[in-house]
Task: inverse folding
């Protein structure tokens, strides 16, 4: 799956500008995370149309890139994420970053992973019967 990574100044209105631009183009944000420091942040988003989102942000002089990520479905119960992280650790898969969110039903959660070696991360999760999600899966839920 593709994700938008946006460089943001850590100042009032920066995030609102991004969401406003996406809203005007009818682009939904399916998941997002912000990592910040005192001066700037990185906004990571899985959106309904990453290419259109990229184009509109770029056209407005916003620093943005497209990044490959892996989205895994996890049962929303104690220990489920820990079990997946243990599998990845045992296979020496380095996670550059991740963020997670719970589905509306509350029965499942999703973890968005950025692996150092994306192919190896995906193969490992598949070998351990972890359900991986595509953009089309998000449209169904």
Result:
């Amino acid at each position: 799956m593709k994700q938008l990574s946006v460089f943001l100044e850590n100042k009032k209105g920066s995030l609102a500008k991004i969401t406003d631009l996406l809203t005007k183009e009818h682009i939904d944000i399916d998941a997002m995370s912000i990592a910040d420091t005192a001066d700037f942040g990185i906004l990571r988003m899985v959106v309904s149309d990453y290419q259109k989102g990229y184009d509109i942000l770029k056209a407005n002089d916003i620093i943005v890139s497209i990044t490959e990520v892996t989205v895994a479905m996890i049962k929303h119960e104690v220990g489920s994420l820990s079990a997946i992280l243990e599998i990845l650790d045992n296979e020496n898969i380095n996670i550059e970053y991740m963020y997670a969110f719970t589905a509306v039903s509350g029965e499942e959660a999703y973890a968005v992973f950025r692996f150092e070696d994306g192919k190896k991360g995906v193969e490992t999760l598949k070998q351990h019967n972890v359900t991986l999600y595509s953009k089309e899966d998000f449209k169904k839920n």
About this structure: The chain has a mean pLDDT of 90. The domain at 2-68 is CATH 3.30.2130.10 (VC0802-like). The longest strand covers residues 2-9.
